[in-house]
Design a protein that fits this description.
This protein is an alpha/beta fold. Helix content is about 35%, strand content about 30%. The protein has one domain. It has 8 helices and 11 strands.
Length: about 240
């Protein structure tokens, strides 16, 4: 059985997940063709090899070419349902977005369907979530496991203003998930990253017994001389 172990030693975010999947062999042309089924335009995807602390990794950058409409969870759900993506990809993607919307709705005391904010409506968030589902399915991954998730501290600016790290929505998503505190004053786990990994991972702990066939590294956007901002994913077979 094909399995993937997400080694989140430096956290997890949507772009890091995509980067690791591309590094594992996800074809960019196939990826773009699948995303076109969403009917969303006004963006470009750039995937390139870079080095983070002397470790080669795939960096994914999504450039917005035109102003995007503000989208609620209801808007995104309808967008995905109307697409020609497979029912499996549609269903999993909607569940991930629902997880984010439920967390945001609770934090801001808003009905889930009416959750309306920048992060979930941004085109890069849509690509991160739907793209992660597309990639995991295309690579034939049947089981997903993850390490416990590291949390940063301090504060970060977002569309809501200055908020504590980890972000309130992230903490809501990570209820009952194994995490640990670090001394790093930066956001290590984003709401998108948290929603994707908690929607796929069956267990959070040590790597299961597996034969490792490939290792993919996805680059994050933070910089540090002490810690490489990378997500490492082991792809192999359980035994």
């Amino acid at each position: 059985m094909v399995a993937a172990y997400f080694d989140c030693f430096s956290g997890i975010a949507g772009d890091m997940i995509l980067g690791a999947l591309f590094d594992l062999g996800l074809d960019l042309d196939f990826f773009k063709k699948e995303l076109k089924k969403l009917g969303v335009s006004g963006y470009e995807i750039d995937v390139k090899k870079i080095e983070k602390n002397h470790i080669s990794a795939c960096d994914v950058y999504i450039k917005t070419l035109e102003e995007q409409p503000f989208r609620s969870f209801k808007d995104i759900k309808n967008l995905i349902k109307k697409s020609s993506l497979s029912k499996d990809v549609q269903g999993k993607s909607i569940k991930i977005f629902e997880k984010i919307a439920e967390a945001e709705g609770k934090i801001h005391n808003i009905d889930v369907e009416r959750v309306h904010f920048h992060e979930i409506g941004a085109v890069d968030s849509i690509i991160d979530v739907v793209g992660a589902v597309i990639g995991i399915r295309k690579l034939g991954i049947e089981k997903v496991y993850s390490s416990p998730l590291p949390l940063g501290k301090g504060f970060v600016k977002c569309s809501h203003g200055v908020i504590p790290v980890p972000a309130p929505a992230t903490v809501e998503i990570l209820r009952n998930i194994p995490v640990y505190q670090t001394e790093r004053k930066q956001e290590l786990v984003t709401p998108t990253g948290a929603a994707v990994i908690t929607s796929f991972a069956e267990e959070f702990g040590v790597m299961p017994s597996m034969r490792i066939n490939k290792i993919g590294y996805g680059a994050g956007k933070t910089k540090s001389e002490d810690y490489p901002s990378l997500l490492r994913v082991f792809l192999g077979e359980l035994f």
